[in-house]
Amino acid sequence: MRTPLKFAGVALMVLSGAISARMAAQAPARIPAQAMDEYQVKAGFVSSFPSFIEWPPDAFHGPGDPLTICVLGSNPFGTSLDALVAGKSVAGHNLTVRPIPDAHQVTGCHMLFVSSSEHLRLRGILASLGEQSVFSIGDTSDFIAEGGVVSLLVDNGRVRIEINADAARERRLRINARLLQLAKGVKR
Question: Which of 36, 95, 171, 176 could form a disulfide with 52 if both were Cys (CB 3.0 to 4.6 A apart)?
């Protein structure tokens, strides 16, 4: 039986509060506040995932290479994801964010957020990754079923994590047990 995501209450409140305070002044006027809050929280998750993932050594050209988070399609994060990764590094790799207009430009991406604007092309996008060690993230209901690694879905007003452990294994990615425990569902 699946249990609801129980993110450490204090940590979630601090994360949400920090993200909201940091991004409030940067929120574009055309995006409703409720939607911005959702994507600020999702940006918090995306920016934290690298700490819980181990990439194979050949995913980087060298020890000082950046860990690149790519956003494919419409960027729902505004500037929040960029702000959260600014100055942050994981295992000696500085985090960077790079928007990409199509999946053919995924070379050099270690993480790929597939925007819901790409929903109709999702199957082809994920197939185009081939055997690359790319940690794919999406927020559509069929993302896991189509072969994505992590889905960030809103359930009862809270962002929940679902993980496709098989897809991660196929991409030679190791997900820390702590992240697996936080997931609402894990497909194995």
Answer: 176
Kind plus residue range of the DSSP H or E element containing 69? strand 67-72
- Helix axis angle for 9-24 and 33-48, nearest 10°, is 120
> Tokens 């927020």 identify what position?
139
Domains parsed from the chain with CATH numbers? 9-187 (3.40.50.2300)
Could you give the CA distance from residue 85 to residue 103 in angstroms, rounded to a whole number? 22
* Distances from the Cα of 153 to the Cα of 56, 78, 100, 173, angstroms: 27, 18, 22, 22
Is the pLDDT at 188 greater than 90? The verdict is no
Average pLDDT, rounded, for the chain: 82
Tokens of 99: 């928007």
Sign of the CA dihedral running 135, 115, 154, 50: positive
Over the stretch 146-163, which tens digit does the pLDDT of each residue have? Answer: 999 999 999 888 899 999
The pTM of this model reads: 0.80
In degrees, rounded to 5, the angle at the alpha carbon of residue 157 between the alpha carbons of residues 46 and 6 is 65
